[in-house]
Amino acid sequence: MQKRMKRTNIFVDCHVFDDGFQGTTTYLKGLYQELVKDTTIHFFFAGDDVENLQKNFGSSPNISYLKYKSKNKFFRLIFDIPKMIKSNNIDFAHFQYIVSPVKRCKYIVTTHDVLFIDFPDYFPRLNALKNKFLYKWSVKASDVVLTVSEYSKAQIEKHFAVKNVWITTNAVSEEFFETYEKKKIQDEIFQKHDISKYIICISRWEPRKKQDLILKSYINLELYKKYDLVFIGDTTFENKKYNELYANLDNEIKQKIHTFEKVPFNEMLSFLRGSELLIYPSIAEGFGIPPLESVAAKVPTITSNATAMSDFDFLKEYSFDPMNQQDFEEKLLLALTIDDLELDEFSTALKQKYSWKKAAIAYQEALKTKKP
C-alpha cells in the first residue's frame, strides 16, 4: 500500500493587515493569493481581524484562519505564535522582518530592506540600532531568508554576512489592472471630498519619502493654479522640512493641499485612478510598489531612480534623481503630457517584468531546499 504524502503546514503572521494597507500587506496578499492555489500545502493565516484576512485570501479547504489573543507584539511573538505553531503541527512559519524567539518549526523571514543601515540620517538612531539587532538576529535564526529586490538582497548579504537570500519580487495586484471610468471616479471624489483636478503621492510619511520635494515644486511651478495636491499615507516619522514649508504657505494654497491617513484600500484605489499624476520621490526603497500600481492603473507616473527603483527601466524617461530638484521638475512637467498610448505600453511592460506567479515559484524553490 502506497504511503500518503504528508501535507506541508505553513503558518503566516499577518498582523500587518490589522494596521491598514502598506508595502508588507501588498506583498503578503499578492504572494499568498498565488501560493494558496497549491493544494499540497495547508496555510494558516493569523491576525487580529480574521474577517479582513478572509476578504484578502478567501475560503478554501487548504486555508485556515487563526486569531491572536493579544494585540501586543511581544505577547504575540513570545506566547501566541509558538502555541499556534505547536497546536497546528506547523512545518514552516513566515514572518516579516522579526521572528518569534521561541522556535518550534522552520522559519521563513522576509526582510524587505535594511535602509536604516545605509541611510542612517533618515531614521531615529535608537530605532535603527534596535532594528539592526532584531533584523540580523531574525535572519540568522531563519531557515529561509527572502527579500524583494536585487538591491535589498545585496545589502542584506553584505550587512548581515549571510548567503542564499532568495528574491520574491513584488508585483501588482490584479485590481490595479482593471478597467474603470476615470470621469465617474473623479466626480465621486469631488462629491465626497470637494477635490477636482489633483496630483497624488501615496506613501508613508518619513523624511526619506521626500514629500517636501513635492510641496516645494508644487509652489515653485505654481501648480496650485491648476491642480490640487493629495497625500495618502500614515505617519511613521515626522517630515520637518515639509511641515516648515507648509506652515509658511498662504491659506488659499493650503486649501488646495489634502492629507489623508488610515485610508481603506478601495478608497486609495479610487484616489489613484482619479488622479492626473502620481509622484514617488523617495530617496531609498527596498522595492517601491506605489509607482508600479500607478502604472498598472494607467495613471501618468514619475518615480525616483534611486536604490531599488532603478530597476524600473520601462519608466526611465520619467524617473529622476530625488536630490536634484530641477531634474524632478522637468520630469513632472513632462509626465503631465503623457498620452494614452504610452500609458498602455508602460502597463504591458510592467506585467511582463513583474508577477506574483514568478514570486511564488521562487518561494517554492526556496522551501524545497529546506524540506526533509
Structural features, described:
The protein has 372 residues and is of the alpha/beta class. 42% of the residues lie in helices and 16% in strands. The chain contains 15 helices and 13 strands. The strands form 2 sheets. The protein has a 7-stranded parallel β-sheet with strand order 3-2-1-4-5-6-7, sandwiched between helices. It is globular and about 65 Å long.
In short:
This protein has helices at about 25-35, 50-55, 75-85, 115-120, 125-140, 150-160, 180-195, 210-220, 240-245, 250-255, 265-275, 290-295, 325-335, 340-355, 355-370; strands spanning about 10-15, 40-45, 65, 90-95, 105-110, 145, 165, 200, 230, 255-260, 275-280, 300-305, 320.
Structural category: alpha/beta
**Spatial sequence of strands, sheet with the most strands:** 3-2-1-4-5-6-7
Shape: globular
Q: What is the gyration radius calculated from CA atoms?
A: 21 Å
The level-1 CATH class of the largest domain: Alpha Beta
Q: What series of H and E elements makes up the topology?
A: EHEHEHEEHHEHEHEHEHHEHEHEEHHH
Unreliable stretches (pLDDT < 50, length at least 5) are: none
Termini separation comes to: 22 Å
- Quaternary structure classification: single chain
- What portion of residues belong to β-strands? 15-25%
CATH topology term of the largest domain = Rossmann fold
Q: Helicity, in percent? A: 40-55%
The number of strands is: 13
Please give the CATH architecture of the largest domain: 3-Layer(aba) Sandwich
Report the major sheet.
7 strands, parallel
Tell me the domain tally. Answer: 2
The CATH homologous superfamily of the largest domain is named: Glycogen Phosphorylase B
Number of helical stretches of at least 4 residues: 15
Overall pLDDT level? 96
